[in-house]
Amino acid sequence: MAGRSRRGLALLAAALLGTAACASELGGSAGHGPHPRDVDPSAADGWGAPGDGASGADPAGANPADAAGDGGASDGADAADGGRSPHVLPFAAPRLEMTIAEGDVVTPQTTLHLSYAVKGVAFLQELPPGTPMPELAVRWSVQGPPDVPAAFAPSSLDAAPEIVLNGAGRWTICVTSVSWLPAALVLPTPTCAQVEVVPESKIHVELTWHTPGDAVQTDTGPAAGSDVDLHFAHPYAQGPDLDGDGAPDPWFVPVYDTFWYEKNPNWGGFLTVDDNPSLDLDDTDGAGPENINLLLPQGTSAKPVGYHVGVHYWHDHGFGDSAATVRVWLDGELAAVAGPVRLHGTDLWHVGRIWWPHPPGVPDSARPGVRLCARPDSQPTSTQKVWQSSLAGRVPCVTPCYHRPGFHGVQSGLVSAGCVP
Predict the structure, then answer these.
(1) Which of 16, 257, 285, 287 is deepest in the core (most CB within 10 A)?
(2) Nearby residues of 365 by Cβ (< 8 Å), 6 or more positions away
(3) Nearest 5°: CA angle at 201, between 236 and 271?
(4) In terms of domains, do 289 and 366 share one?
(5) pLDDT band with cut points at 50, 70 and 90 for residue 174
(6) The pLDDT of residue 253
(7) Containing H/E element for 169?
(8) Quick one: the chain helix, strand, coil %, rounded to 5?
(9) pLDDT for residue 6 is more than 50
(10) pTM for this entry
(11) Does a cis peptide bond (omega within 30 degrees of 0) precede residue 145?
(12) Does 126 share its domain with 240?
């Protein structure tokens, strides 16, 4: 009860003084400027739980005591409210105002600290001394890039939750009022804010996947979901030609292939780590994302470097086929989206190559580029490869039952996928 009382008194003080001094008690935060870049509040319910009906709109359409019909406080009452008893009920045209402590432009894997304040509160009547002040219950919701999960901690019903945004791109966060406790009063209108998640590395590769056979793709634990892996290989990676295209395969090569077994290999000089790639997220039991970053790529205009990007379905854990999507960000901008591509257990998808500082055979002034791998004859069983900027009308380069002999023993996923080791 003590926590509820403090929250109610802070709400009342903010209403009486018309200031944000008590915003921190309400879950507000100073020094970062409240959001949003407001999104239409009427659309906020679309981010909430289905069918909750709590849009936050005044069902009457206006404050009954607002003779002017302007949606504000009771006409002529504001000047006198400053001397009222502290036991009052808020009503009419209140609204929620969101604060995101970290701001609206962050890097992937940033933890956001969220809070809200109630603004524009007016008064309905006095309450007898000792009556508990009402407390507002809210619900938070989030919408981000496709197939990139995110969850509020400790829950979406907390007054000041945290959320980690792992995927690059634009996210929309909303807070919607659910009810006043214990009173039944006019609910503040909801509010939404947009957050841009922008990679700071020169090369940022992100993998997500969707497995229809896994009903709950956000649960965690051993074998709780499909295990799909992202690979990012240096051109020095030279392994056996298992895909039959006549060239060495770059996958599962020690030091020069970045993946779950080689998360942070040394590709450059010993005096800096910025020229080394890093697998910053590895998801073994769900839908991703996984991402690999390289702050300082190698390559010059005279000799561009082409890094390989691949996806390997390590183990389906009995959940069946999965659809993988890869997004490539170069210099903080989305440069390519490949997929979704359907993968069977232990399939290897050679996504393409990232060329730095630009693809070969183009002017030196050209930007870095991505060339995707496709089958020239549009036959899934083909072993030939062509490189182009889009997969439109082409079959991706997928090798079934891919297994690198001698690596990590016998891969158990081969048995689950029906492949012979």
Answers:
(1) 257
(2) none
(3) 60
(4) yes
(5) very high
(6) 94
(7) strand 169-181
(8) 5, 35, 55
(9) no
(10) 0.75
(11) no
(12) no
